[in-house]
């Protein structure tokens, strides 16, 4: 689950037994990477200033008073904050988020890459029994749940490695979106008090997203489920069962309708009035068909009486989609049309449907992902290091483009395009 203001696994091998602390006990399922709690506390080797350390300690003591007033026990508070120190890494990550300049089509190309599809099919094969049970229980397609899993953590590979209490406390103390982080910290303390996890295993992103499908603490409290029946809602362990079921539960409670696609690509007739498109402008499928809209590929349209909206994100020259209530359920998970389209399309690819028939507007000036990779390779070969070849046009690539353009006496735009690629190919 992405944090709207923009969003390596470390699992300790030995669980911390809480004993008589009154906040339960935790033993991880499915093994894990042998790391100690100390090893997963990123940032401790950065020697934060003494005033930051003292300031955080004072802030924690004040925060404990507010938490006690809301029902958090002293045992939970003492255990939660026992090993917390000021974490510069959480601050660094909050201030240095990657900013990629991507069109919708570039985003979809990366999100629904061949590698993500291949790994998604492998995940479906490995966890097919669990995913089928989740689908039967919550009515959410197993491929959709798998697609969310792939989008959020690359099928469990990137669940977040920061100690959550420490990161949230550091950000709350610094006042960065303070209300948000203080509320997430309180929710995290409630999770600890319930005994679902202990501080040593409660890891996540700098912004508080946790587990296989990146629930923030408040979302966890509202939607996480114990699908394995072991008494804990464990989204952190290598076993993804509770995470996958929790995601399906979230979508189901967000209005998911069993058996309905979220988004289906369609073709528009010549001269179609694109002003008819947009969210909130609902028509049944049969009404759209009467206006000349047709199925674009093997993916069938929703039933004729289904209420839908028409998205035309690329204008008349790009792909168009009929979206259903299930699209809006995905938006509850991450309120971005690009994300919901990616989840829907990735799920369709995992079901065996073909790619989009018109994924890239004919008049779009950008480069496809393989062309962007080639551009990065050529820039680096010419002495303008992009710091990696991944097709993502972030600040390193933009700076390399600018330096190259300046060295050749070209207009310094920093923008990747076909003209730039041709110039690089010529040397």
From TrEMBL:
PROSITE patterns: PROKAR_LIPOPROTEIN (PS51257). It comes from the Bacteria. GO terms for molecular function: peptidoglycan lytic transglycosylase activity. One of its GO terms (biological process) is peptidoglycan catabolic process. InterPro entries: Lysozyme-like_dom_sf, MltB-like, MltB_2, Peptidoglycan-bd-like, PGBD-like_sf, PGBDSf, SLT_2. Residues 57-348 form the Transglycosylase SLT domain. Residues 370-424 form the Peptidoglycan binding-like domain. Transmembrane segments: none annotated. Pfam families: PG_binding_1, SLT_2. This is Membrane-bound lytic murein transglycosylase B. It comes from Paracoccus laeviglucosivorans.
């Amino acid at each position: 689950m992405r944090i709207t203001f923009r969003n390596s696994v470390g699992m300790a091998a030995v669980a911390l037994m809480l004993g008589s602390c009154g906040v339960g006990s935790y033993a991880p399922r499915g093994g894990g990477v042998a790391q100690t709690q100390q090893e997963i506390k990123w940032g401790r080797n950065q020697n934060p200033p003494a005033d930051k350390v003292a300031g955080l300690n004072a802030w924690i003591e004040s925060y404990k008073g507010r938490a006690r007033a809301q029902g958090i026990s002293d045992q939970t508070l003492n255990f939660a904050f026992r090993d917390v120190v000021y974490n510069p890494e959480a601050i660094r990550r909050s201030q240095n988020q990657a900013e990629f300049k991507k069109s919708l089509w570039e985003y979809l190309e990366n999100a629904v890459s061949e590698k993500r599809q291949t790994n998604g099919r492998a995940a479906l094969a490995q966890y097919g029994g669990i995913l089928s049970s989740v689908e039967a229980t919550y009515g959410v397609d197993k491929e959709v749940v798998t697609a969310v899993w792939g989008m959020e953590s690359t099928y469990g590979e990137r669940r977040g490695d920061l100690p959550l209490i420490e990161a949230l406390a550091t950000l709350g103390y610094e006042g960065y979106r303070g209300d948000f982080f203080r509320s997430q910290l309180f929710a995290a303390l409630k999770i600890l008090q319930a005994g679902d996890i202990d501080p040593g295993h409660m890891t996540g992103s700098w912004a508080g997203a946790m587990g296989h499908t990146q629930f923030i603490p408040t979302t966890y409290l509202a939607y996480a489920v114990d699908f394995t029946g072991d008494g804990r809602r464990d989204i952190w362990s290598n076993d993804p069962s509770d995470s996958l079921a929790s995601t399906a539960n979230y979508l189901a409670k967000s209005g998911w309708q069993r058996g309905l696609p979220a988004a289906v690509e369609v073709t528009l007739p010549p001269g179609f009035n694109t002003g008819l498109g947009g969210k909130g402008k609902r028509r049944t499928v049969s009404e759209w068909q009467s206006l000349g809209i047709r199925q674009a590929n093997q993916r069938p349209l929703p039933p004729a009486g289904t209420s839908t909206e028409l998205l035309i994100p690329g204008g008349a020259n790009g792909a168009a989609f009929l979206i259903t209530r299930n699209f809006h359920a995905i938006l509850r998970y991450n309120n971005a049309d690009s994300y919901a389209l990616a989840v829907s399309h990735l799920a369709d690819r995992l079901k065996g449907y073909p790619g989009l028939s018109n994924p890239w507007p004919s008049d779009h000036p950008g480069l496809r992902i393989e062309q962007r990779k080639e551009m990065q390779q050529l820039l680096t070969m010419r002495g303008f290091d992009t710091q990696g070849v991944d097709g993502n046009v972030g600040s390193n690539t933009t700076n390399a483009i600018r330096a190259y353009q300046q060295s050749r006496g070209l207009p310094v735009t920093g923008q990747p395009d076909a003209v730039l690629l041709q110039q690089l190919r010529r040397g």
